[in-house]
Amino acid sequence: MLEPPRTHVHDERTVYDGSPWLHVKRHNITTPDGMTRSHHSVQLNTVATVMLLDDHERVLMVRRHRWIIDQVGWESPGGIVDPGEDPEACARRELLEETGFEAETFILVAELEPMPGLVQSKHYVFIADHPRQVNTPTDAEEAGRLVWVPVYEAVDLLARGELMGAGTAVGMLAALQLARGREFDSPGQECVTPFEAG
Questions:
Q1: Is 163 exposed, middle or buried (0-12, 13-18, 19+ CB in 10 A)?
Q2: Can you give the pTM of this predicted structure?
Q3: pLDDT (tens digit, 9 = 90+) per residue, 100-154?
Q4: What residue stretches are annotated with the Nudix hydrolase domain (predicted)?
């Protein structure tokens, strides 16, 4: 396969250091059309997120308010990978902190950069199964309502803009694909967990 033309980076400098959350850099570049110009980029942390899939074709989602976009929607548990931390270990930690659940098997279904033209923030997306509740949520900052959501609602939720974040959207679609190839127990009527975070 032929390689595409490349953009050449001549130099870069940090113009804003918002440690530990973000850095903004200014780059001097030459684009494939031969134009030399400046371009900014935002460097964010690496993130790991997990879709916890049960035997009833459902995933455990957090319904929460995100004040930056002033929107209520669905998210999968997840968070920032600590320096030196393995992404799967982060996903397991965040799942426990945000939901009180553990899981048996974690499968990496995606490694992606959601907005590579402007932002660098690697996302690791996992699917986990065989859930077991071992605690109540302990992360009050990420408080929300925990709900078991049928995976077959994925396309409708995505079309309505209710799946917040690229990791959540990718994980939900991967869970839907996985669910289509599995055998499940008969789902119960109650989807809401017996506790709420916060």
A1: buried
A2: 0.87
A3: 999 999 999 999 999 999 999 999 999 999 999 999 888 776 668 999 999 999 9
A4: 43-171
- Domain span at residue 12 reads 8-44
If you count them, how many residues does the chain have? 198
Q: Give the ranges where the chain is alpha helix by DSSP (H).
A: 87-99, 154-159, 166-180
Q: Is residue 118 part of a domain?
A: yes
Phi, psi torsion values for 17, nearest 5 degrees: -110, 100
C-alpha 107/C-alpha 110 separation (Å) is 9
- Per the CB < 8 A criterion, the answer to whether 148 and 58 are in contact is yes
Residue 188 maps to a domain: no
Contact 179, 57 (CB under 8 A): yes
Same domain for 134 and 173?
A: yes
104: domain CATH number is 3.90.79.10
CA distance 6 to 32: 6
Up-side HSE of residue 128: CA atoms within 13 Å toward CB? 29
Spatial neighbors of 55 by CB under 8 A, at least 6 apart, are: 184, 185
Domain count for the chain, please give it. Answer: 2
